[in-house]
Amino acid sequence: MQAETYKPEHFLWSFDDGIATITLNRPDRKNPLTFESYAELRDLYRDLVYCREVKAIILSGAGGNFSSGGDVHDIIGPLVEMDMPQLLDFTRMTGDLVKAMRACPQPIIAAIDGVCVGAGAIMAMASDLRIATPQAKTAFLFNRVGLAGCDMGACAILPRIIGQGRASELLFFGRSMSAQEGHDWGFFNAVVAPEALHDHAKTWAKRIRSGPNFANAMTKNQLNMEWDMSLDAAIEAEAQAQAICMQTRDFERAYQAFVAKEKPVFEGD
After folding, report:
1. Phi, psi angles (nearest 5°) of residue 56
2. Distance between CA 221 and CA 120 in Å, rounded?
3. What percent of the chain has pLDDT over 90?
4. 156: closest CA among 189, 114, 126?
5. Measuring CA to CA, which residue among 134, 141, 136 is closest to residue 175?
6. How far is CA 126 from CA 79, 88, 120, 164, 246, in A?
7. What distance in Å separates the CA atoms of residue 194 and residue 209, rounded to the nearest whole number?
8. Per the confidence metrics, is the pTM higher than 0.90?
9. Sign of CA dihedral 204, 206, 211, 215
10. 247 with 263: CB under 8 angstroms?
11. CB atoms within 10 A of CB 217
């Protein structure tokens, strides 16, 4: 894909100076997802693996809300008419979105205002960094519609962010987590005023863009890989990853800048 010319059908995309912004754009219905938008988002994140011009990603929603999750009429209604193979195709496809978000090397910053529920909460969870406004209301509400909380990796990822007990509370009850709770529990990295949300996300994205992008991608890869490694295996994997990074020009640039008492200018190679 070419970041400058990419034109999605089911959400908004902008690209400027290494930073891509994905905006869910159905504000009249609080930005729900459809079969088509799930698949298009999944394919985009897969393509971003090979798009080196994108250094950081901001994920947000239009109209004062992040996302209300799967559209009741476009998704929930058709699901009750499907047979088991069709349902499994759907749940695997939605899970593939999370896999693609975690596998894309660029750090993803979720900028969350208002409603952030269901699959919307999952996309926030699958991001690398999360910034919220005080109005953010996050709920993994699958239990409230007769489904298990184990959706799209929630039982694997959420406990690693906020702990087993707190994750269990949200998944069993489907209740809303306030922005303050989310910040106290470590789900949100920061809570800022609504008018500052996108500027704050852009500031963080610029910091990432200006960093050693190859090394940042390696960090994200190791964060993913080390979930199910033994300590010995993780230390060995990190030794190999760091040795690879030590061969990059960015590592040499950092050294030369230090010697010259200058700030390093990283180029991602």
Report:
1. -150, 155
2. 23
3. 91
4. 126
5. 141
6. 24, 21, 10, 17, 29
7. 23
8. yes
9. positive
10. no
11. 19
